[in-house]
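ok, trying the design again with the full structure, not the truncated one.
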């Protein structure tokens, strides 16, 4: 089947012509924040990661979809980005677990895609000029570029958080009870905790500190999520209150940023973000280097971390940005990267043991 022409137009008016796949592109097109990710595998996890809410994803790896669609690998029940940009999608995937091809999956999910474009060329532009908005369209003449430039991601955390508590139980004995404060959690975070004997209760983003404390958790997980962390003023205020309970806290990605904001630090937008499975992170305490999966467009400004309360534990080996914080006055630590990463790497999975160790210590305090 021959697909119809499609165009990706960046807000600086640079235009890339390709072919449509996935859902047919409507006349108004699909507008979103254009970002790139460098992962060679894990495209299913990428497509279902709530942190990509409101964005158009560009995959730098040239062929996507070669192992098909596998629902067991999804990080959430639905596709989260607004659009998908690839060099080539595989029409005949080969994998004994495959349940279908990428094109059919995107059609079913209502997501528009464009293929046959120079994704690495687009990536170079974003790296040089910074993240910008864009539109996937079938008719460049119909696009209102002023509207494209005005686009912002709104109500992102509220849009991807659970609406009511959800419980994930371990296969064996429950050793710890963890509340996962859901800002758009990847499913593998709860699975990683459950694999270590934790009964995990996901609660909505707008839960108060009082409601969470009333659940008497052994620990609280602050998860990933989309958007600008500084927009979440209500969550930040509730986090300030919750830190007074003395409950162990482990934060990942957006959760890392939100706790930093609650403790007096600042966040700042990165030029083009860190998205992919090959980000090197240095442990400033031990000197060891870990390869990590990341997906974020904002960072904690490490100079703003109050010395009396916290210290930067991990740094990005490429650009020196803050990748993790150890807190001194509360039982908490956070990381910008994803220790639960699927499809990997799993270098930093030991951080879940650090969290369970904190909960065990509190039990016997």
């Amino acid at each position: 089947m021959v697909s119809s022409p499609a165009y990706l137009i960046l807000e600086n008016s640079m235009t890339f012509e390709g072919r449509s796949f996935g859902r047919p592109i409507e006349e108004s097109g699909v507008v979103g924040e254009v970002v790139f990710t460098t992962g060679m595998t894990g495209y299913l996890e990428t497509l279902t990661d709530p942190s990509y809410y409101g964005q158009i994803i560009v995959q730098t790896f040239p062929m996507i979809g070669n192992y098909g669609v596998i629902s067991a690998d999804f990080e959430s029940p639905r596709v989260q980005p607004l659009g998908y940009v690839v060099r080539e999608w595989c029409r005949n995937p080969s994998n004994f677990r495959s349940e279908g091809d990428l094109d059919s999956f995107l059609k079913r999910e209502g997501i528009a895609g464009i293929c046959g474009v120079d994704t690495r060329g687009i990536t170079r532009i974003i790296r040089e000029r910074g993240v910008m908005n864009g539109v996937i369209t079938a008719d460049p003449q119909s696009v209102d570029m002023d509207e494209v430039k005005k686009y912002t991601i709104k109500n992102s955390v509220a849009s991807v958080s659970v609406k009511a508590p959800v419980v994930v139980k371990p296969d064996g004995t429950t050793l710890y009870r963890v509340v996962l404060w859901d800002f758009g959690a990847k499913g593998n975070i709860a699975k990683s905790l459950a694999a270590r004997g934790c009964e995990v209760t996901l609660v909505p983003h707008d839960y108060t500190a009082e409601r969470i404390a009333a659940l008497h958790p052994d620990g609280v997980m602050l998860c990933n999520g989309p958007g600008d962390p500084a927009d979440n003023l209500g969550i930040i205020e509730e986090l300030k209150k919750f830190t007074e309970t003395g409950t162990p806290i482990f934060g990942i990605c957006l959760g890392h940023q939100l706790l930093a904001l609650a403790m007096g630090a600042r966040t700042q937008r990165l030029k083009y973000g860190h998205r992919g499975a090959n980000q090197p992170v240095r442990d400033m305490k031990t000197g060891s280097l870990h390869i990590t999966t990341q997906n974020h467009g904002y960072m904690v400004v490490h100079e703003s971390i109050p010395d009396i309360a916290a210290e930067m534990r991990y740094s990005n080996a490429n650009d020196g940005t803050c990748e993790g914080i150890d807190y001194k006055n509360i039982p908490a630590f956070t990381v910008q990267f994803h220790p639960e990463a699927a499809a990997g790497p799993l270098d930093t999975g030991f951080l879940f043991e650090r969290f369970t160790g904190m909960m065990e210590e509190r039990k016997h305090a």
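Keeping the full-length input from now on. The chain is about 20% helix and 30% strand.
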